[in-house]
Amino acid sequence: MKGLESLARRFLYYPDRLPADMPPPRWAEGAEEVWLDCDDGVRIHGLWWPEPQGAPAILFLHGNAQEAYSWSLVRQELEPLGCRMLLIDYHGYGKSGGEPHEAGLYLDGEAALRWLGGRGLEDGEIIVFGKSLGGGVACEIARGRGFRALVLESTFTSLSSVARKLFPFLPKGVPLGETYDSIAKLPGTRSPVLVIHGDRDELIPVDEGLRLYEAAPEPKELYLVPGAGHNDVSMVAGPEYARRIASFLEERA
């Protein structure tokens, strides 16, 4: 059984490594490289955009593939929000130490919140933004806390709910060793919740987003993007993507 759990983990995480001396890419202009210490002793790597000074900050928790340098393109998509941004790499991703696993990713999220707190940011100034797998991390660290907002994009309710999509090769009902039971945690947040999902998501069906929205406490908002799949939500939505997020934040400022 341990072998099956290990196999499931191997197909859940797709980390790319980065050389320790590799500088940020040209499209990550304005970003500073930062290092964060997790409670298990692992150091993780991230990118921090400190401008505009004094603005709220987005903590961006990315999906299960690639690394922060590749994901840094999201900065351009979210720049119209006028926020600072911290983008972290999980255990085993990019320049970060360790190996990816559910408990480790939760420690990454907590380390990021401590790092932001150390720079004077209070919960009400932080927007926790989880994309796909990152939404599972976001739901964990948002329990009992009142952030400026909790944004979940293309996120699943729990790993078991989408296991047949992600792991079609595994016997039905096999323990996965990872749970990411976001739908059970989401009602415990004290943050306004924005759920974003493509209505043609081929990997995480739109019903997953609808169920998360139903489970979220008020205030909340649902933003379905017509024609969008799993990885192209912002591209299909175009300028409306940032406009809708900004509107949600402004209404709850």
CATH class: Alpha Beta
Task: Report the β-strand fraction as a percent range.
Answer: 15-25%
How far is it from the N-terminal to the C-terminal residue, by CA?
Answer: 49 Å
Which CATH-level-2 architecture? 3-Layer(aba) Sandwich
**H/E element string?**
HEEEEEHHEHEHEHHEHEHH
CATH H-level superfamily title:
Alpha/Beta hydrolase fold, catalytic domain
Spatial shape: globular
Structural class: alpha/beta
Number of domains: 1
Number of helices: 10
CATH topology: Rossmann fold
Rg for CA atoms = 17 Å
Strand arrangement across the biggest beta sheet: 2-3-6-4-7-8-9-10
Mean pLDDT: 93
What is the gist of this entry?
This protein is 32% helix and 20% strand.
Description of the molecule:
The chain has one domain: Rossmann fold. The chain is an alpha/beta fold. The model has no long low-confidence stretch (mean pLDDT 93). Helix 4 packs across helix 5. It has helices spanning 2-12, 68-71, 74-78, 102-118, 133-141, 163-166, 182-185, 206-215, 233-237, 239-251, and strands at 14-15, 32-37, 43-49, 57-61, 65-66, 84-88, 126-131, 149-153, 193-198, 220-225. Strand 9 (193-198), helix 8 and strand 10 (220-225) form a beta-alpha-beta unit. The protein is built from ten helices and ten strands. The strands form two sheets. It has an eight-stranded mixed β-sheet, with helices on both faces. 32% of the residues lie in helices and 20% in strands.
